[in-house]
Here is the input.
Amino acid sequence: PTPPYLKWAESLHSLLDDQDGIHLFRTFLKQEDCADLLDFWFACSGFRKLEANECNEEKKLKLAKAIYKKYILDNNGIVSRQIKPATKSFIKDCVMKLHIDPAMFDQAQTEIQTMMEENTYPVFLKSDIYLEYT
Amino acid sequence: IDSEDDLLQECITSAMPKKK
Here is the structure.
């Protein structure tokens, strides 16, 4: 069978579908000071999943606010800098108007994912940390 | 503040794949 670390090189999704892959990628991102990109990506997925399990509205609102505050509000943050202004305004509007939708972070997540696919992921595959692991 | 961080961490963990 194909070893997991070779699968990680197939696509970002294969990497993010494996616990060890996530761990190694996060260690790499931490070195580059951009682990928030990955945390935000998972936070968006987790937020969307909440809708499926009959979770209370208060928790959803609290979580949406927490994600907004930690990753988007500060324009100098690594995540915030990679998200388009229109996308940020959309999320801000949702939070301010208490219009909490399971898909409210989808566009922002896509933008961060594209950035990782084009930038941090290929760099990771060439990094010492990955090569040493393999 | 702590509970907000906990909530966020719980959300991040919930989205990660489980050990195979």
